Amino acid sequence: MSIYEDYLMLLSPPETVKHEIARYKKASARLIGNYKSMDSPAHISIQHLERQKPFMADKNLELMEQALNILPPVLLHLDGFYHFSHLHNRMTIYASIRATPATDEWFNTLKKKLRIKKNLIPHITVVRDIPEKDFDALWPHFRHKKLLEPFWVKELTILKRDTLDAFAKWDKFKVFEFKNMAGPGYTRDELELLKVGDPDQINLFN
User: Fold this and answer.
1) Which of 88, 127, 143, 190 is the most buried (most CB within 10 A)?
2) DSSP the chain
């Protein structure tokens, strides 16, 4: 067993959304070359715990699973692209998750279940931590793109890796389902969006 482990809790969108984000990543790489998040599958980061003593004991996992099982699945909408800045003039471009009272309430409940105190802005990173010159080359291609895509999230995934192994990769550790299908009152049309997605709905960088 590892002495210390890193844990990453995330929400995974369906394959249609992963496909769309992967296309944007590849199109970006054609313009600026390789970058950090180029090969990372699309996901919404919820919590990143670094250098932890392996804390996922059976009882902790059981309690976490019970807490998450009573949450309903959540219907999210991708809604365009935005960016934020890091230190040293470095930038990240991300696909925005539309904020609504219902999604705000759902994420606040998730934070309480996981005892997360930090602010959480749900988003899907496309191009992470790039120099300003690369951002200037990319952003004109993103700023007017209207990526509008509804999708359901039905589970939380926990990944882990060995903190002290410089070459360690993330491995899937646990998956907890949101099972409360009698949660907020989605319409019949919304419930039928579970498999919505058209991989040809956008025209990349043309």
Assistant:
1) 127
2) --SSEEEEEEEPPPHHHHHHHHHHHHHHHHHH---TTTTPPP-EEEEEEEEE-----HHHHHHHHHHHHTSPPEEEEEEEEEEEE-GGGEEEEEEEEPP-HHHHHHHHHHHHHHT--S----EEEEEEEEEHHHHHHHHHHHTT---EEEEEE-EEEEEEEETT-TT---EEEEEEE---TTSS---HHHHGGGG---TTSS-TT-
Per-residue pLDDT of the chain (206 residues; tens, 9 = 90+): 678 888 899 999 999 999 999 999 999 999 999 998 899 999 999 999 888 877 665 678 888 899 999 999 999 999 999 999 988 899 999 999 999 999 999 999 999 999 999 999 999 999 999 999 999 999 999 998 888 889 999 999 999 999 988 888 999 999 999 998 776 566 666 666 554 444 433 344 44
